[in-house]
Amino acid sequence: MTDAKGVGFCTECAAHIESWEGLTACPRCGTTNVPCANENQVTVTVNWHELHLLCVWAENYQRAQGLGSTIYAIAKRLHAQHPERDPLTLAGELGEMAKKYEMDVSDPALRHDIAAQTGEEVGLVRRPIAPDVDGTL
Ligand SMILES: [Zn+2]
Q: Edge-to-edge strand order for the sheet containing 36-37?
């Protein structure tokens, strides 16, 4: 975040934090997760592929452990710095593929993650209509 305002920002929703004084939760989203202090803002040099690997591994751990969507929030802020690049998460990549090829996704958790990462809903795969025993639909 280059437009530093206040003392920091919410790791989840990027809301600006005006003061640490009396702060117990994010004033916008209500998370009690530790916010990011502006004084810790740094610039690093990294290869996009390296960053992609870090994000996908973190995303997989987050999904496996049911740890919310912090990695998606961070990956969205990182990707916003280079929107011409490919998404940094698997959910972002799958969301782009689903959109490009008009694919649907049957896993509700994955549909949720794709929406969290891309901001767009993907369709639900509907089961094909199974014919009755006599072959009629
Ligand atoms: Zn927040």
A: 16-17, 8-9, 36-37
Q: Please give the distance, rounded to the nearest whole angstrom, from the Cα atom of residue 113 to the centre of ligand 1.
A: 18
How far does residue 91's CA lie from ligand 1's centre (Å)? 21
In the 8-state DSSP scheme, what is residue 78? H
d(CA 51, CA 88): 7
pLDDT at position 2, please?
46
Rounded to 5 degrees, what are φ and ψ at 79? Answer: -65, -35
Q: CA–CA distance from 89 to each of 19, 21, 97, 109 (Å)?
A: 32, 35, 12, 15
Dihedral sign (CA 72, 19, 29, 61): positive
Q: Where are the domains of the chain?
A: 1-43, 48-120
Rounded distance from Cα 19 to ligand 1 centre (Å):
14
Q: Is 9 helix (H, G, I), strand (E, B) or coil?
A: strand
Q: How does pLDDT run across 17-33, given as a tens digit for each residue? A: 999 999 999 999 999 99
Ligand 1 midpoint to CA 84 (Å): 26
User: How many CB atoms are located within 10 Å of the residue 82 CB?
Assistant: 11
